[in-house]
Write a structure and sequence with these properties.
CATH class: Alpha Beta
Order of helices and strands: HEHEHEHEEEHEHE
Shape: globular
Strand content: 15-25%
Radius of gyration: 17 Å
CATH architecture: 2-Layer Sandwich
Structural class: alpha+beta
Helix content: 25-40%
Number of helices: 6
Number of strands: 8
Largest sheet: 8 strands, mixed
Strand order of the largest sheet: 1-7-6-5-2-3-4-8
CATH superfamily: Endonuclease Chain A
Number of domains: 1
Distance between the termini: 46 Å
Length: about 180
């Protein structure tokens, strides 16, 4: 009986450790995103409504440079947002797309290596980390990641490559070799 109880207790701890929660302001959301992006080995898929966080943008570029396949879909407001990181991502070779099909493309998700999902109200912005009341969940669950990936792919299907004001356009087929 004690052995069964111990097994159940250990199993419940494993499940609990697969979900992390963060809150802002100043609750470590940005740090959690950057840390998880740093662990990526194969793929990072991003959907963001607002994206002005320099540390998160840098972490995405760093991942791209180490051979991770990174792709970003942003809301159409990021075409004209003064401090958007869309230009930075584009110029650093990260394929970036605009979802203009919806009134607001309000998703805030990151899918890492087909098993980790970051989601919640947390916008990828400095203001969200320092001033806003936000939340971020980090969920390690391949089945959930598959559903989020399918939804991400459907949004990519109607998104258009991001173009900066000088006419530079995201490459849909990045030049970098990918590691398997």
């Amino acid at each position: 009986m004690k052995l069964i109880f111990l097994a159940l207790l250990l199993a419940s701890n494993v499940v609990a450790s697969d979900i992390q929660v963060f809150f802002s302001p100043k609750g470590g959301c940005t740090e959690a995103v950057v840390e998880n992006l740093g662990k990526a080995k194969l793929t990072i898929l991003v959907q963001a409504y607002s994206f002005t966080s320099a540390p998160i943008a840098k972490a995405l570029v760093d991942a791209e440079k180490r051979g991770v396949k990174v792709q970003v879909i942003l809301d159409k407001s990021q075409r004209t947002e003064k401090y958007s990181d869309a230009d930075f991502l584009l110029h650093e070779g990260v394929p970036t797309f605009i979802d203009a099909k919806h009134a607001i493309a309000h998703n805030k998700i990151i899918i890492i290596d087909s098993h980790t999902v970051l989601t919640g109200s947390f916008n990828f912005t400095k203001a969200a980390e320092e001033n806003n009341a936000e939340n971020l969940l980090v969920i390690d669950d391949a089945a959930l990641a598959k559903k989020y990936t399918e939804n991400w792919q459907s949004h990519l299907g109607h998104s258009e490559p991001y173009t900066d004001e000088k006419g530079a356009m995201t490459q849909t087929q990045p030049n970098r070799q990918r590691t398997q």
